Amino acid sequence: MLRRLTALGLGLVLLAGCGTEGVRETPAEPGATSPATVEITTADAQAALDGLGDLSDAWKDRDCAEIEQLTTGVERTVGSRVCAAAREGRAAPAFRAHQDPEFLLPGRQDGEDGAWFAVLARKPEPAYFVFVRADGRWRLGAGPIPLVGKAPEVKGGVDGAVIDAAADPDAAIGARLAPTRHVAFLTDPGGVNGVGVSGVRFASGDPMRRLLTELVRAPGRVRPDHLSTDVRIEGPARALALPGGGSLVFHALRVVFTQKPGAGRSSLVRPLYRAADVRAFTGGAATTVTGSEILLLATKVAKDNTMTTVGMRRVLADITEGSG
User: Comparing C-alpha atoms, which of 121, 135, 119, 166 is closest to residue 72?
Assistant: First the structure.
């Protein structure tokens, strides 16, 4: 069955790519109480993007320590367990460096720690990346997030400025509530037919509609085994204001499946995960298993709070023995 859980406060994943240089910090005026602001240059962003080549090499070598150094938040959460499983025989993800970037650099953020920017890289296939400043260097927080819809125009104004949604009152509330509204939708079985009680709607062709259908039908597909599903928020959301209102929100969800044998049975009849994957993550076989899948999302929130999935990546991040 579907159960709505309290959102988890875990960090969004980010990759370190360019050492300790690259942020321009402007001190606050003497006597001012506001924090210093930072500005990100295109050169800073390009250096961070170029650092993805190091991450690609680390995945090829299954160098878990290097992956941890180059990522943070959600990407580090995913990478730590997936890399360990890859060392036990599971296929490592084919991480590729991207090119032909459009840099989306929010202007004048408060404080160096946590400063961030996004990139829409169009080759080899269009995908978003989110970089965050942590411990004195840029680290990959989320990405790639492959484009599944039309990328919204982010740059507005006569000078093509990019604005952090948190600094725009017209965009901030919708951006902040987007992850919570996703959880409400994905834990509302009635939403499959468009008549759910959550009040959250996605268009019929949106990947969120297909995911909800999958979650609702999953318990029936594994009977006589028992399957429960939880949906949680994974880390903070970061968002860019859109010209004319609304926002482009980068955020993550964790979908947790717990499968156990039915009454009177000692083993699973229709296991959700392959035995080889369970062994790679847990080190052996398991009667009851809990699998965690991470969804990395780019969501367009319109001025009227209508949501559309623009980018999405789904990855099996962990399998544990027992009910989690």
Answer: 135
Cα 293 to the chain's mean position, in Å?
A: 11
Count of C-beta atoms within a 10 Å radius of residue 160: 9
Tens digits of per-residue pLDDT, 78-125?
Answer: 999 999 999 999 988 888 888 899 999 997 666 666 889 999 999 999
* 294 DSSP β-pair partners: 254, 315
Find the helix or strand (DSSP H, E) in which 26 lies: strand 24-26
pLDDT value at residue 301: 95
3-state SS class at 188: coil
Residue among 316, 309, 315 nearest 148 (CA): 309
> Are residues 69 and 144 in contact, defined by beta-carbon separation less than 8 angstroms?
no
Residue 36's pLDDT band, with cuts at 50, 70 and 90, is low
Q: What is the pLDDT of residue 11?
A: 31
Report the C-alpha gap between 313 and 294 in whole angstroms: 8
Query: How many helices and strands, by DSSP H and E, does the chain display?
Result: 7, 15
CB atoms within 10 A of CB 305: 14
- 7: confidence class by pLDDT, cuts 50, 70, 90: very low
Residues 234, 1: Cα–Cα separation, whole Å? 21
Q: Which long-range contacts (CB under 8 A, 24 or more apart) does 261-269 make?
A: 261/225, 261/226, 261/287, 261/288, 262/223, 262/224, 262/225, 262/226, 263/224, 265/224, 265/225, 268/222, 268/225, 269/222, 269/224, 269/225
